[in-house]
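residues and backbone:
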Amino acid sequence: MEENLKNLLHLGETYNEKNIKELSPLALAFIGDGVFEILVRTHVLNKNLSANKLHREAIKYVKAKNQRDLLEKVKDNLDEEERQIVKRGRNAKSHTVPKNAEISDYKMATGLEALFGHLYLLGRYERILEIFMEMIK
């Protein structure tokens, strides 16, 4: 089962430093959004709440404004490559306009998601957890 999951994801085979750099920052943010969401959901699950309350608790982390605030908490501890990924994500030209967020918050959230996507595709799971744990403490 675990081997089938690895084959489905193709991690380690398909993605390397070179072709990850060729992905658009919005593609990185797309996958990073999923990574961030699963981390948040796992974190709030420990609070033993009803499904509705779990959802409301998760929203506290995944709103653009809140993601921007979380990024602010860790930005000084990012290395230069990570800062560049955040910057690429922040500066990406998105064709969607956020309904319930300031554009500046939305752009910073995209930068954060691009960082998580980049690290995920490189298989740097420990670094993802290190950054996430710093954000939520």
In short: The helical segments are 2-9, 17-22, 25-45, 51-62, 64-74, 80-91, 103-121, 125-136.
